[in-house]
Write a structure and sequence with these properties.
By secondary structure, this protein is an alpha+beta fold. It has 3 helices and 5 strands.
Length: 176
């Protein structure tokens, strides 16, 4: 995990935070006719990183070697009483990313922890830019915790909020 030198930077979290770096594959099929990662594929890269960072696999899959998430959210999975829905997503493309056999690194952190929702901020980087000085994209996803049966929002309990606070940092600044 790495962080940028300045808490006011528009491209990375403050040095006091604990961002999570998740390696993701950039597949040949992620490219569009112009030779760069398509916007829909970028959403998938962010989703892959978010799932790896926050969603716990079922116990039987963990027993078979599935990795444990860095910062598990309460609930999740098909048999859980608590699920998540995406309320919004914003992606700002900084520069084009072509095919990379070495993949990408999605750095993410929580820029807001609300009553029943979280804002997850991201930088899409490569391994040669561990400080995040030249990201390919910046993004934010608002995730809402919901009751799996009714779909009603479910407030984060104090223990979950405390654990997630470790991954909180300054929000990204987007161009307008």
């Amino acid at each position: 995990m790495a962080s940028s030198p300045s808490p006011s930077s528009s491209s990375a979290p403050s040095s006091a935070s604990s961002p999570i770096d998740i390696p993701v594959a950039v597949r040949w099929t992620d490219l569009d006719a112009y030779g760069h990662v398509n916007n829909a594929a970028m959403v998938r890269l962010l989703e892959e990183a978010r799932i790896a960072a926050f969603w716990k696999a079922p116990d039987e899959q963990i027993a078979l070697g599935a990795p444990a998430p860095v910062a598990a959210l309460p609930g999740g999975g098909t048999d859980s009483a608590v699920g998540t829905v995406i309320a919004s997503q914003r992606i700002e493309y900084v520069r084009s990313m072509g095919h990379r056999r070495d993949g990408a690194v999605v750095r993410l952190w929580l820029s807001r922890i609300g009553g029943a929702s979280l804002s997850v901020d991201y930088l899409v980087l490569t391994r040669e830019d561990p400080e995040g000085q030249a990201p390919y994209a910046r993004a934010r996803t608002v995730v809402v915790m919901v009751d799996a049966d009714s779909g009603a929002p479910v407030r984060l309990d104090d223990d979950s909020r405390r654990r997630l606070q470790e991954f909180a940092a300054q929000p990204l600044v987007f161009r307008d």
